[in-house]
Amino acid sequence: MQNIFTILIRNAVLASLVWTTLPQSAGATGAEPTTDPLVDPAPCQAAATAKDDDKIIAICGALIDNEKTLKIDRVRALIARGGAYDRKDQIDRAIGDYDTALRLDPTLADIFNTRGELWYRKADRPKALADFGAALKLNPQHEAARANYKSLALELERLGAQMAVNNTPSFNCATARRAVEKAICADPELAKLDRGIHTVNIWVVREAKTPRLRRAIQREQDAFLARRNALFGRPDYDLRKAMKQRFESLVGVDGY
């Protein structure tokens, strides 16, 4: 994936910078400074600044588990510990901490992007793409998320093309009856596009989070095929363009 490992290295220090990149709590928000040493964020902050992963996990973990901890401090501690888990290659635990941080504060574009990179490392491309997209919705100028999103979308496009076996489409050309199907069979590029659309649609439907969303995605696919069949042959209908647009809408290339 183009540039993603460079981005991963750069983002590995995210947790250690979290106290300078998130809003200030306590006095900065008008709340009274804490006098309880058990909920004092300073030791967790110090561990994160020192990049001492073992201390981060222990000290920030105690802060996370204390019900008296302010929400913003818990978010910071979760991000710091998530970064420590990441550096220890405990990806599932890192994702778990980022999950909780984003439930507490769903406006953190950087964390969506970072969690997306972890999903990519786990080879879960749908979740990675969703997180990169979420980061871009929050911050359309987020360069790392934009690069990750574009790179992954192009990767998915290449995977779809590779699934075209001997330039064959998703259907049997020997039994093709429609004029549009015969046109696809006669053109290797269209055959690859058809195979890619079919394969990625199955994948997207399978990975949809709810039955309702799965049905909606399949209805879009059915509508695309119906339009393709009805409009093919008209002077103003560009089959190649329509198929490319459908593929791009499935993998999310458009707009990025």
TrEMBL record:
TPR repeats lie at residues 75-108, 109-142. It comes from the Bacteria. Coiled coil: none annotated. One of its GO terms (cellular component) is cell outer membrane. Residues 1-26 form the signal peptide. The keyword Signal applies. The keyword DNA-binding does not apply. Gene3D superfamilies: Tetratricopeptide repeat domain. Keywords: Repeat, Signal, TPR repeat. GO terms for biological process: receptor-mediated virion attachment to host cell. This is Uncharacterized protein. It comes from Bradyrhizobium lablabi. The lineage of its organism: Bacteria, Pseudomonadati, Pseudomonadota, Alphaproteobacteria, Hyphomicrobiales.
